[in-house]
Design goal:
The chain is mainly α. It is built from 17 helices and no strands. The protein has helices spanning 3-10, 13-26, 37-60, 64-88, 94-105, 109-121, 129-138, 140-157, 165-173, 176-194, 196-208, 210-227, 229-234, 237-260, 265-276, 282-290, 296-327.
Length: 328
């Protein structure tokens, strides 16, 4: 493992701001970014990353290899909940297992954005079509989680409850982050194709201030993550171990697949991060309405207080180091 990559990542401004936010909570300092500023920062990051991805997608085009990778991403989002759910059922009820498995099958846009910034800092190229993969992978895991819960409850009760697949898909797809990301992606692609001067005009907004906004957002995420440590402790060590072990397993699978499909190191890292991250925005929003009985202190705390910090501090450089060794 290339330890220099880990140290370089740990001492990057974005990660240090995240640690600063977490440390403020641990020291009892009332550091707070008032609402709705965190929401605004989140919207900006989604718009900027989506727009830049759309521009790059228009420049590179949709080849057969790109479509293959997008389908592979979609497949991983479906498969991960299928093997996560039975593991979780050993300790949790059907509803909580479904919500947690959906979280780990879905993705973290901020982890993806942090990985993109990491690649930019070390001057490793990556493609815009991976933004489309980000958008594709957010919702299928939510659908799978709801289906798994419905099927398990029907089996346990001995009834044949009809699963409303249309409603499940609607709940999963119509969330703010997916819509905004796809809308920004399409806007960037169309702007690059038909109004190249417009792309240049918006560049200061999508590029120059991007890293500063990311640092401020990660400061707020550090505060949020540390605030959930107490809730996570109540769930026991099983969920904490699961929240690190499953992303590592997913990462190993993703790195193997990335090598099999000849992904370049930058794209391989982004694919790995998508497979190894966990959702703490889209899934909780969907679960609040679709599975109101699910315990947020389990699925939200696991994704936000364990998996997210692990990935942005250790996971990203660790995965890239593994990719480099295989790609060498």
């Amino acid at each position: 493992m290339n330890s220099s990559l880990i140290f370089e990542n740990i001492f990057s401004p974005a990660v240090l701001f995240f640690c600063t936010g977490g440390l403020s909570v641990l020291l009892g300092i009332q550091l707070e970014i008032p609402q709705p500023i965190p929401k605004l920062l989140s919207l900006y990051l989604l718009v900027a990353i989506g727009f830049k991805g759309g521009v790059e997608l228009a420049r590179s085009g949709m080849s057969i290899s790109v479509i293959e990778i997008l389908l592979l991403c979609l497949l991983m989002a479906i498969i991960v909940p299928l093997y996560a759910f039975p593991i979780l059922r050993r300790r949790f009820n059907s509803v909580d297992s479904a919500a947690i498995s959906a979280s780990f099958g879905s993705i973290s846009a901020v982890t993806f954005i942090t990985a993109s910034s990491f690649l930019n800092e070390i001057n490793v190229e990556h493609s815009g079509f991976m933004i489309a993969a980000l958008a594709l992978m957010e919702s299928p895991a939510i659908v799978m989680g709801l289906i798994l819960n419905g099927a398990t409850e029907s089996k346990d009760s001995g009834t044949t409850n009809k699963i409303n697949l249309t409603q499940i898909i609607r709940t999963a797809m119509l969330n703010n982050s997916v819509f905004l990301l796809l809308g920004s992606l399409v806007t960037g692609a169309l702007s690059e194709l038909f109004d190249h001067s417009g792309v240049e005009k918006i560049s200061p907004f999508t590029n120059q201030i991007f890293y500063g906004v990311l640092c401020l957002f990660l400061l707020e995420m550090g505060i949020s993550a540390a605030s959930r440590i107490r809730e996570l402790k109540r769930s026991g060590t099983f969920l904490i171990i699961f929240s690190i072990a499953l992303p590592l397993v997913n990462a190993i699978i993703a790195i193997f697949l990335a090598n099999l499909f000849n992904l370049q190191p930058g794209n391989a890292l982004l694919f790995t991060v998508l497979c190894a991250s966990a959702s703490y925005i889209a899934v909780p929003a969907a679960m609040r309405s679709a599975l109101p009985k699910a315990n947020p202190s389990l699925y939200l705390s696991a994704a936000l207080a364990v998996t997210f910090p692990f990935n942005i501090i250790i996971g990203i450089p660790l995965y890239f180091s593994m990719i480099q060794k295989i790609h060498a």
